[in-house]
TrEMBL record:
The keyword DNA-binding applies. Residues 1-24 are annotated as: Disordered. This is TetR/AcrR family transcriptional regulator. Keywords: DNA-binding. The lineage of its organism: Bacteria, Pseudomonadati, Pseudomonadota, Alphaproteobacteria, Hyphomicrobiales. The keyword DNA-binding applies. GO terms for molecular function: DNA binding. Residues 8-24 have a biased composition (Basic and acidic residues). It comes from Paradevosia tibetensis. PROSITE patterns: HTH_TETR_2 (PS50977).
């Protein structure tokens, strides 16, 4: 039998085996490991060989699922955004009063970013690439439309109840919340070294979390209602 046909048969067997066992699990495993590699080494520095060595798959299967390294990177980026948006969707803030709901969103964002440093690094890497890969993704655009929709709905409820200041931009509000929580991870190491104070200690993180919530509430909530929270 010709060598080419033997190789082709081996590929078919491998693909069929993975598909019959747990194709989605295999794909997700690759994405999770790849996310760690991209977050650590960037798009240029990450190596498919290293990713394959750490997964329950092979280099050939990675290309089968994702096409190339850039395809894998985009899938990892989409997964990172999906995780944060799925977490937001589970907050169940609809039954809370607007001030309590806003507090919960800020607390969730701070905690999520603190626990998922790979997400922050992936976003930083994508900004280095001027969001050229993110721009290709309808998945990420749809996910973030949902995030802004949540903020818009909450803000409208707060204004209608006379609790929130009027004429604020929900996208800018989302920006401010993200900025406070993002910087806590992205610049923690440099800030700690420059000022000789470990910002990553539990005590420092508790203080920053509480202050981040307080800053957002003072920006959004009408002064006469701040004490009610």
């Amino acid at each position: 039998m010709p060598v080419a046909k033997v190789k082709k048969s081996a590929e078919q067997v491998e693909r069929a085996g993975v598909r019959s066992q747990d194709p989605e699990g295999t794909r997700q495993n690759i994405i999770e490991i790849a996310s760690e590699e991209f977050a650590l080494n960037g798009l240029a520095g990450a190596r498919i060989d290293e990713i394959a060595a750490r997964t329950r798959s092979s280099k050939r299967m990675i290309y089968y699922y994702f096409g190339d390294k850039e395809g894998l990177y985009l899938s990892a980026l989409e997964n990172a955004y999906r995780l944060v948006r799925e977490g937001e969707s589970k907050l169940d803030i609809g039954g809370l009063d607007p001030i309590a709901a806003l507090r919960r969103i800020v607390e969730f964002t701070f905690d999520h970013h603190h626990k998922h440093e790979d997400f922050i690094r992936m976003v930083m890497i994508e900004n280095i690439h001027h969001a050229q890969y993110l721009e290709k993704s309808e998945v990420i655009r749809d996910l973030n439309v949902t995030a802004i929709g949540t903020i818009e709905s909450l803000y409208a409820r707060g204004v209608e109840a006379g609790l929130f200041r009027e004429s604020l931009d929900p996208i800018e509000l989302h920006w401010q919340i993200s900025a406070l929580c993002f910087f806590n991870v992205s610049n923690r190491a440099t800030f700690s070294k420059i000022f000789g104070r470990d910002i990553g200690t539990p005590q420092a993180q508790d203080s920053l979390r509480a202050n981040s919530v307080d800053m957002v509430l003072r920006y959004v909530v009408r002064p006469e209602h701040l004490s009610a929270d």
